[in-house]
Specification:
four-stranded parallel β-sheet, 2 domains, five-stranded parallel β-sheet, Rossmann fold, 20% strand, 386 residues, alpha/beta, 12 helices
Length: 386
């Protein structure tokens, strides 16, 4: 009897999405065409990496490679860990297939022929929003975010998109941080400044319940429809907006995936996931499903432990999934995702209407260095929060 393929799965903590790994792996096996419960072809070995920091991730990789002796690595990571873990992959001659939400921009200097990525590329969404906001509303807008969110590349991607759309003044406001109560959002000062200065638009970057708290405050302050509100993509995910659907508000955002897309692939994905889990799809299920589709193609060679062939195929393979064409090897040139600028309206139900297409960036664009350097708080956020 042939033993299953062992894949080590790096698993950081997320208070916002505590079940993301279960959703991701359920999507993965469905994408492979397997029953997530009954399948016995692949065994994922979870490795908790706490905050997902460089050291915790590196320690997890070492354990999986040396103690568990996995055939391959996977899991949720930040691109910031690549300088430390790619040498480990290469020295052990192992392949890694990783997931990320795209809160950080990949650094091309640390990519490897052994590493592959299923990335949600949230930075693409922010860059497109920045360009659109500048052309639509002009300069002088205000970006608002808590300290934790200021440690990502999202706001700097928005800034660069704004600059490429015409540039000019763009103010940044990072909320005060209370170490004793890090989840408290002190928004008094920023709302006072917004009402006094009346900017042409406000761009908000919050996560989870913080996003809903911002929406509620926005409406309470009487700003809804008075000042255009542009929010980060993860603030309009259905699982969060469902809690505030009775709050009447209007905003703009961007979307890398439209669950309402009527393609055959998307309908099949939603049907399979809902039947298997009893839950609506989410971004983690989607990332897993897309990965499962490519693993379905390469599994005959994984089964033979022909890792050279697996590596070669992963470098070239493309799939057509629920949101269109995807590939997983940066040096082959990531397929640019479709970015939709979306108008969101809530009044008992949530409606999302695509109003235009957003601009995208190639993964190795030279302006990425500028985006990486634009973290004004000096804060690096190791937590997975978005």
């Amino acid at each position: 009897m042939q033993l299953p393929i062992k894949i080590g799965f790096l698993n950081p903590y997320s208070s916002l999405y505590p079940y993301y790994s279960q959703h991701m792996l359920a999507g993965f096996f469905l994408g492979m065409g397997e029953d997530p419960v009954k399948q016995d072809k692949i065994k994922f070995i979870p490795q908790y990496t706490d905050t997902g920091s460089v050291q915790k991730t590196k320690d997890g990789v070492r354990k999986l490679l040396n103690f568990d002796q996995v055939d391959m690595l996977s899991g949720l990571i930040s691109y910031s860990v690549l300088p430390e873990i790619t040498p480990l992959l290469e020295s052990h001659n192992k392949l890694g297939f990783f997931f990320d939400s795209g809160e950080y921009i990949p650094h091309v200097d640390y990519l490897s022929q052994n590493a592959f990525f299923s990335s949600n590329q949230l930075w693409q969404s922010e860059y497109a929003l920045g360009q659109w906001a500048r052309k639509e509303y002009g300069e002088g807008g205000i970006m608002v975010m808590p300290l934790l969110e200021s440690g990502y590349h999202l706001h700097s991607a928005f800034q660069k998109g704004f600059s490429m759309g015409g540039g000019g003044d763009l103010l940044l406001s990072v909320l005060p941080f209370n170490e004793e109560n890090p989840h408290h959002l002190d928004m008094d000062a920023v709302f006072k400044a917004i009402k006094k200065n009346v900017p042409p638009f406000v761009h908000a970057i919050f996560s989870g319940e913080g996003g809903n708290e911002f929406f509620k405050r926005w409406v309470k302050e009487g700003l809804n429809k008075e000042i255009p509100l542009i929010v980060a993509e993860h603030m309009i995910y259905d699982e969060w907006l469902d809690d505030i659907k009775d709050l009447e508000f209007e905003c703009y955002s961007s979307s890398l995936y439209d669950p309402a897309k009527r393609s055959v692939q998307n309908k099949l994905f939603k049907q399979q996931f809902q039947q298997a889990t009893g839950q609506p799809v989410n971004i983690f299920a989607l990332l897993g499903y897309e990965a499962g589709m490519v693993f379905r193609e390469i599994f005959p060679y994984m089964k033979k432990r022909d890792w050279d062939k697996v590596q070669s195929l992963l470098q070239k393979e493309h799939i057509r999934g629920p949101r269109g064409e995807r590939n997983f090897y940066p040096d082959a040139g990531f397929v640019l995702p479709e970015v939709n600028i979306t108008k969101v309206h809530s009044s008992g139900t949530i409606t999302k209407d695509i109003i235009t297409k957003g601009k995208r960036l190639a993964y190795n664009d030279l302006i990425f260095d500028d985006i990486r350097k634009s973290v004004p708080s000096g804060w690096f956020n190791p937590f997975f929060c978005v």
